[in-house]
From TrEMBL:
The active site is at D431. It is a multi-pass membrane protein. ATP binds at D431, K432, T433, E550, F597, K620, R654, T735, G736, D737, R844, K850, N873, D874. Its EC number is 7.6.2.1. The keyword Cytoplasm does not apply. It is an enzyme of class 7 (translocase). Involved in transport of phospholipids. This is Phospholipid-transporting ATPase.
Amino acid sequence: MAGTKKPRRGRRRIQLSKLYTLTCTQACFKQDHSRIGGPGYSRVVFCNEPDSPEADSSNYSDNYVRTTKYTFTTFLPKSLFEQFRRVANFYFLVTGILSFTPLAPYTASSAIVPLLFVIGATMVKEAVEDWRRKKQDIEVNNRRVKVHKGDGNFDSKEWKTLSVGDIVKIEKNEFFPADLVLLSSSYEDAICYVETMNLDGETNLKVKQGLEVTSSLREDYNFKGFEAFVKCEDPNANLYSFVGTMELKGAKYPLSPQQLLLRDSKLRNTDFIFGAVIFTGRDTKVIQNSTDHPSKRSMIEKKMDKIIYLMFFMVVLMSFIGSVVFGVTTRDDFKDGVMRRWYLKPDSSSIFFDPRRAHVAAIYHFLTAAMLYSYFIPISLYVSIEIVKVLQSIFINQDIYMYYEEADKPARARTSNLNEELGQVDTILSDKTGTLTCNSMEFIKCSVAGTAYGRGVTEVEMAMGRRNGSPLVFESNENDVDYSKEAFFESTVKGFNFRDERIMNGNWVTEPHADVIQKFFRLLAVCHTVIPEVDEETEKISYEAESPDEAAFVIAARELGFEFYNRTQTTISVRELDLVTGKRVARLYKVLNVLEFNSTRKRMSVIVEDEDGKLLLLCKGADNVMFERLSKKGREFEEETRDHVNEYADAGLRTLILAYRELEEKEYKLFNERISEAKSLVSAERESLIEEVTEKIEKDLILLGATAVEDKLQNGVPDCIDKLAQAGIKIWVLTGDKMETAINIGFACSLLRQDMKQIIINLETPEIHSVEKTGEKDAIAKASKESVLLQIINGKSQLNYSGGNSKAFALIIDGKSLAYALDDDVKHIFLELAVGCASVICCRSSPKQKALVTRLVKSGNGKTTLAIGDGANDVGMLQEADIGVGISGVEGMQAVMSSDIAIAQFRYLERLLLVHGHWCYRRISTMVCYFFYKNITFGFTLFLYEAYTTFSATPAYNDWFLSLYNVFFSSFPVMALGVFDQDVSARFCLKSQAFNHKGKTSGREILGGTMYTCIVWVVNLQMALAISYFTLIQHIVIWGSIIVWYLFITVYGEFPAIISTGAYRVFIEALAPSLSYWVITLFVVVSTLMPYFIYSAIQMRFFPMYHGMIQWLRYEGQCNDPEYCDIVRQRSIRPTTVGFTARLEAKKRSVRRSNSA
């Protein structure tokens, strides 16, 4: 932070705006500024006037931000709604209310208490999970920032208390608490560097510049008496646009995105800035891009509702059948003065058994039976699943294989509602920066004068080497050497992972093209906008760059003997090795112009004058724009360089071409005059004129070589993507980064291959550019939409022409085009094209677009989607997806706060989905099936007993038998299965994937006790047959449930008859002494379970499914037979077109074709 060390040399004296030719240009009024004051442009801000009546009457949003699902006032109604939109809960609410009427066949307490327990337990779980989010909100809202309190004094204040119009002071490496208009900075010309990674995923620093009129406000006391008046656009979600004006001292000045600093972006490379608050809280652009925290339900839970509808229909049907039979029987019950069913006492009863009003009695019976048969529907199902899911979440949280020791971050299931969905994921929508990558660049290889240097190994190459099962051996162009040890050399210098003794330690002077090598690394040391910082105590130099690429290039040049150590307003100083003397000398280069990089130019140039007076244009850029700018004499090494660039790209590296040329003095003077004229224009034609002038100077270049930088992937990303692809999961990349950066990462992750046909949809066409120059928004929108639609249709035609073979196609689309592709009349065609391609990459996507794409995929194919990201720009996407996974990375916790599950590294997604997802899905689905099985079994005994008693609505069991069946005697084994069962181990998941003998009726309680015993044995032993992986806990709960039943009926039967009612001593005196009781129990259990046992045995032995084959491997001891294991594994792997396995197969096909040719 500023002030913690001695001042650094020469920092604030530099007017950075004079280094930039294209970025820092004079602000001008454009057509949009004429709309200010009209609809959509009505916001008025009084800067530094918090007490003015106009500011008080604005009623703008405060700066408090929340990500919670509930508030204190909405928790009860919203949570109750969540619970009672579950069909079963609503059904039991109705039956609970009816239980207070005389219609109920059981006491009201036995119906209401279980319902209250179920609802209460679930609401408590929801409250605990939301409280965790609330604590994170409190931490963010209570961050502090310096705010002007008057008279030039700044005091620390909480973020949540900020108001529109406040003047704030932000210091280096702090986040912006709201959307601000930049007034001034520690630099004289109000320049500052901003990192927007949390917003758009880009690691490149953005250069922002305040208005010249406010640039002098660099001290606290300057704001005493400062007043300004801002009119601007209303709050909106567009991150890349801003239109406004500032009135200061009677003059009006235009505001543009160049002056806007967005909430959650970070101040970098700048000691401090002063800004005026324009948008707060929910009005800020990042919050405008987010959505309310959704209520997510798993597909199994939705299917459960459908099953419960079916069960409800069965209950109604059985109740209807019973009521009809009961009505007919009741009507005929009174004949010739004799009561056939005298024990029901119809002469003294109410209307329920009145033979004279049998039709009314039938209606009442229907309601009573509907309550009695409610045991068909398992009331404990939801709460049992909630408990099981919480325990599953604990296992996920405690999984040591998903613990990131380096950052001390375990996996964390922030909500347990979606565990089983992890096993059903069809499409993953991933952010790039911070999710797939580490946000760091490493210089790893280069090609100079047609010779390849560097023996570092990328993540992709290592993954392919492991897939081959052999050590990596690399061959140089000159000799066949095993460089495997050097290949895995880990450099201690951040940004530099280069290893080649031919040019390290000054050995490059002996290379055949030493002069070209010298120019190559000199260009890296000079062609940039990096600022060196020298620590006065240690004399160590550190670099602050706009992008990690630039920092990596400067560091590489330094490590190889070309040390950039000082920058002034107009010069760059480099220490380099002199070819003639062989000694290190200090050289001074006068910087005349910097033509900076942007996504349209795809190149950067500097014009310098060396100590000999030569004018040099040094240029670096993308291969597709650089090769066409080479002169005829400058193409000597073109063929070799192109080959090397293709090899580097195939290894997942980002490449740049380096070239230069000498300028004539006359030519430079003409250029300088024209560029100065173009920069001074205030019309809309200024940008096109600047582009035209730079185009003429950057030509006839001489090729030096190419750099290869690794956008360092997180460890294990290629392996993880390959495994997920083999499991049939599709992966889309949605990033705010530039297209070329996203494509490079696509190659690095093996989502793209060299032999893939890329369908690129963008609006960078001459036709669109010509329409844009007119400035007519309606015409631009119409032409752009037509262009995007045409490109989508052409892409579909290519797919159809290929016969639907998606292997060769990848779809890449930019943010501007995506805006039109997501229109209602286009989005379904776009989705058809995207689904037909092997890989999809969406570049320059805003947070809102990420969320809309996720919604389109989720609703379009109806399958489970998972979104994964690490920044605030990913929040909408995470909330929109069926499952949101947040990466708990270095920068911020916004994604984690809005996620369902948090992990520290992308590679843990493999274990999360393929192990925990598989287990949770199988456990929950099996658990649901057995819940319905045990309740249907129990319910049918009630129905059969009803039929036997002419549907008199008399329960077969004691009230407490009914109430405790789902709690003590059948639920625990099912829950144990839901927590502990494993059909396949984690290693293989990752590697592969009542009458007595005389026929007379016995007593009702004796018959009920016998039936109940059979049910307890059957449902528990059926569970034992279904379990694939026994643990001690499962043995305890299965056999313990049976034992508890016998203990309960014995102890409960010993209670006085007034308490135990019909169960009084029924087991001791009637059941236990009777041989028929034990024989019937054994016969029912065996006859009930034998069909399932025979079916399972035949299927396992003769028609095994994939997990069954893996179980045979384990049981027969064939785990170590590689040939058989591979056969089983290949049967499980789905054909894949992405991942390094697909890349390896493509290479093999290419080799076979070349050999056959």
